[in-house]
Amino acid sequence: MPTRTLGDGTKVGSIALGAMAFAGFYGGGDDMLGVDAIRRALDRGVTLIDTAEAYGQGHGEELVGQAIRGRRDEAVIATKTSGGHPDYITEAVDRSLRHLGVDHIDLYYLHRVDLEVPIEETVGAMADLIAQGKVRSIGLSEAGTETIKRAHAVHPISALQTEYSLMQREPEVDLLPLTRELGITFVGYSPLSRGLLTGQIRSEADLARDDWRRRVPRFQGKNLSHNVGLLAPLEQLAAEKGVTPATLALAWMLQRTSNVIPLVGMGRPHSVDRAVEAWELKLDDDDIAELDASFPIGVAAGERYPEGMMDALGT
Ligand SMILES: NC(=O)c1ccc[n+]([C@@H]2O[C@H](COP(=O)([O-])OP(=O)(O)OC[C@H]3O[C@@H](n4cnc5c(N)ncnc54)[C@H](OP(=O)(O)O)[C@@H]3O)[C@@H](O)[C@H]2O)c1
Known about the structure:
The chain has helices spanning 31-43, 59-68, 86-100, 119-131, 145-154, 175-182, 221-229, 232-241, 245-256, 269-280, 285-294, and strands at 3-5, 11-13, 16-18, 48-50, 76-81, 105-110, 135-141, 159-163, 185-189, 260-265. The protein is α/β, with parallel strands linked by helices. The protein has one domain: TIM Barrel, CATH 3.20.20.100. The longest helix has 15 residues, at 86-100.
């Protein structure tokens, strides 16, 4: 697997594995399949493994820790603090280290900008963790441009993690140019639009009763019908190329811009094997242009989070 570089110079496989689904967010998560997926990922050069304390109150981190036992040096571990107050961060990092069973975290993100705390204080506390050897580099998630600039002035930010896919191209307007300018790597989460771009979700009936996506407007009623209706050009081009729509969607992201690492939720070894195929699929300029035209900014119907969670995005 070719590599890409985080802002601090760490080389990682150009596709990253997200371990959120192991915590059961999407229903039907299977712990051992998830652990096997991480081990398969390391075998295939997918080295950046992403989790958060919020994924199952530490359970997701424990599974990542279990998967990398004996292979710590092969993995670049990213996790996230759920709060931005310095006191909170001091305690949260120790909990995450304990869950993971490691002595340092390679990339420690602020999961959401804490509106109660100036970003300078949050980043100052995160930078202290680097000085203490608990963390190697720091990142932000879902931060807006002004916050990123202020944070980066306190301590270099290694990565920005924000949703990015054919269904969610808004970061191309401001976040991608800014991160490129500042030397911050853009980690694009939910690059398959939480499964929509796999083509395997056609109606709400395809989601388990306890699947969190049922609460997301983008996966409800007329919005979902509209969004599924957008898939035809992706599915047609994928069929022409003999690949799955998911592979094509990932190849689009990898080849469109070199500053981006797609962060794919992979709860099964099979998904890792499919993701790796995205590297082997070469797209030409016409393919990229066709997909760009079929999925313009704003194309998806419905918000990407339930109403109460929207305020924390892009802050
Ligand atoms: N910072 C944040 O606020 C934030 C928010 C959301 C997500 N994230 C991170 O981003 C990661 C990915 O996001 P996500 O899981 O929401 O969405 P995603 O990567 O867009 O989609 C994941 C879904 O697609 C399936 N899948 C993966 N590869 C596939 C393939 N090649 N073919 C068919 N299906 C495939 C997965 O199934 P299986 O699980 O069965 O493999 C899973 O159901 C998370 O795990 C998490 O680490 C971060």
